[in-house]
């Protein structure tokens, strides 16, 4: 299976998704192309409404141009609603009450747990974390893993494929945390940042018993 090569446009959008804001110099360092080439790509992306720029004052010297993603760029990143419809969930809530929505998400949590847990057998905590990040990336979460110490890890998710659903139904976030606990085999999983709370990314701190 061949992997599609990322274009410079793709790379710029992904850098901004992960880092929030970047300058021309910072893009030049990351892309290893000239200032002129960077500015050309940025001009096109800004014209297309995918990025936006603003002048940022500096302690010394002239203000510099900083670039961020525009709202329209959100559609560029994976969105996998897995059959979940906000309208449908609202209808279920209206017809059968809040408990029915909770039960639906609990069922989804159970299904995902059963689907993923088989991939964790005979793995060390570190290997489990690598596998979990791979699973989340398969689902479009743009996840990264960092190691805090021998027993503690952090998952950062730069994209949320069900963001609009999670904004409306916070139970989705709680069920995802529970799913991580069950799949990884640890009760110590805490969500330290969340897109639905206004954070730029979702972050989970995962600890295994030493």
UniProtKB/TrEMBL annotation:
Pfam families: HTH_DeoR. It comes from the Bacteria. Transmembrane segments: none annotated. SMART domains: HTH_DEOR (SM00420). Gene3D superfamilies: Winged helix-like DNA-binding domain superfamily/Winged helix DNA-binding domain. Residues 9-53 form the HTH deoR-type domain. InterPro entries: ArsR-like_HTH (IPR011991), Carb_Metab_HTH_regulators (IPR050313), DeoR_HTH (IPR001034), WH-like_DNA-bd_sf (IPR036388), WH_DNA-bd_sf (IPR036390). Coiled coil: none annotated. Keywords: DNA-binding, Transcription, Transcription regulation. PANTHER family: HTH-TYPE TRANSCRIPTIONAL REGULATOR SRLR-RELATED (PTHR30363), TRANSCRIPTIONAL REGULATORY PROTEIN-RELATED (PTHR30363:SF28). This is Metalloregulator ArsR/SmtB family transcription factor. The lineage of its organism: Bacteria, Bacillati, Bacillota, Bacilli, Bacillales.
